[in-house]
Design a protein that fits this description.
With 215 residues, the protein is of the alpha+beta class. It has helices at 4-26, 103-114, 155-161, 191-195, and strands at 65-70, 78-81, 87-90, 94-97, 123-129, 134-139, 145-148, 174-180, 183-189, 211-214.
Length: 215
């Protein structure tokens, strides 16, 4: 039995050496393991400042960012912001009225002006960012602030966009403030009734400039 001990020790050493060599080939020294990817989420209410696709009937307003693209006329193409006076500045064409027009109407207007300098101009107007249509929510919600109104949105949907009601919110006396005919008007909104499918008519569609107050 005593003669077997050196042999067993030699086998053990060879086995450990082989395993160490194999591990070294599959896990190079100095290369850390790849960490698992963790999904990240933007805070509720964060606006995506990327190109949008408004409906054809969308009316351009002050603050909107537009992409003016002239086919094969890069000197005339640019991204512009609609000024508070409703106008934009386009190279060579100078100031042009943009607010109050749809993208299609504005492209036709620009094409008519550009014919003075360009033969058969082809113009496309892209709404890159909507800033003229916004609503506001304040008070006891998780994420109060300004929200872009890119489509049909109700009071309940705005509250959901804001992360829902915060603790101790008076859910029965939410108020919508709106300007009509240069006067402030208010509409009461009972959150508890609406989620219970009662008096759904109070869950009205929001308009640009509306403010929802959650006491």
């Amino acid at each position: 039995m005593t003669r077997m001990k050196p042999f067993l020790m030699l086998v053990s050493v060879l086995t450990i050496t082989s395993l160490s060599s194999a591990w070294a080939q599959t896990a190079p020294v100095g290369k850390p393991a790849t960490a698992p990817q963790v999904a990240s989420f933007a805070p509720a209410g964060a606006a995506a400042d990327t190109q949008v696709a408004p409906p054809p009937s969308y009316v351009i307003g002050s603050g909107d960012v537009l992409g003016i693209q002239f086919w094969q006329q890069s000197d005339l193409s640019s991204d512009v912001v609609v000024r508070p006076d409703g106008r934009i500045t386009v190279p060579l064409l100078n100031d042009v009225q943009a607010a109050g027009e749809t993208p299609q109407q504005l492209s036709e207007h620009l094409r008519a002006i550009a014919t003075r300098w360009v033969k058969d101009p082809n113009v496309t107007v892209i709404v890159r960012q909507i800033n003229s249509r916004a609503v506001f929510i304040t008070g006891r919600v998780l994420h109060a602030g300004r929200y872009a109104l890119n489509g049909s949105t109700s009071i309940l949907q705005l509250i959901a966009m804001a992360g829902g009601l915060a603790e101790w919110a008076d859910a029965e006396n939410v108020t919508l403030m709106r300007t009509e005919n240069n006067q402030f008007v208010t509409h009461r909104f009972n959150y508890k009734d609406v989620i219970a499918r009662k008096h759904l008519e109070q869950n009205i569609e929001l308009q640009p400039g509306d403010t929802v107050i959650v006491p």
